[in-house]
């Protein structure tokens, strides 16, 4: 910014002296970083310049984000903030232009810092990470199902073994009461001759017949 000074004595007709002084604007913030996050958000951070004014003269930082297109450039947001960071929700694949400068009371805008950035786009590594996460969830679902299936198989095997043992015990008991001469099997001696249950000529694959 330029200032012109004109000096003249109070004597009528005295010559004037004109002086022009150029005052540079306040420097732009330093170490500006734009970090693209996975949720399509952009985290913008910076640090104040050592020559930045302080106190009541400092009004903040003017941050402007523009959507850059081949045909037109439109302002997405423009804010004046006190802190040295800002969160912005970017559209994936879109290109943006960031401008940042200090705002000082009764002073022209400071030097502007420019940055280009784009919205987050998934990369091959992100896709692999997503697939891995899906496989992990799939395994987490299959493991309980597998445990239930194995448990059911064990119960079925126990039932089959107990059934076979019971069948063998019954056959052993029946054979111990089998009379080879009369080919009959008697259970107990308290019944009359006409009421005694008889099992005649049975085998493993034939049902018992009570006579």
Structure description:
It is a single chain. This protein is α+β, with helices and mostly antiparallel strands and 211 residues long. Among the domains are: 95 residues, Sandwich (Immunoglobulin-like), CATH 2.60.40.10; 41 residues. Helix content is 25%, strand content 35%. Strands 6-5-8-9 form a four-stranded antiparallel β-sheet, with no helix packed on it. The protein has a three-stranded antiparallel β-sheet with strand order 3-4-7, with no helix packed on it. Strands 1-2 form a two-stranded antiparallel ribbon. A hairpin with a 7-residue loop joins strand 1 and strand 2. The longest helix is centred in the last third of the chain and has 53 residues. The termini are far apart. InterPro entries: FN3_dom (IPR003961), FN3_sf (IPR036116), Ig-like_fold (IPR013783). This is Fibronectin type-III domain-containing protein. Keywords: Membrane, Transmembrane, Transmembrane helix.
* SSE series: EEEEEEEEEHEE
CATH topology of one domain: Immunoglobulin-like
Across the major sheet, the strand order is 6-5-8-9
SS class:
alpha+beta
Question: Which key phrases capture this entry?
Answer:
alpha+beta; Immunoglobulin-like; four-stranded antiparallel beta sheet; three-stranded antiparallel beta sheet; 1 helix; 11 strands; Fibronectin type-III domain-containing protein; membrane; transmembrane; Ig-like_fold; transmembrane helix
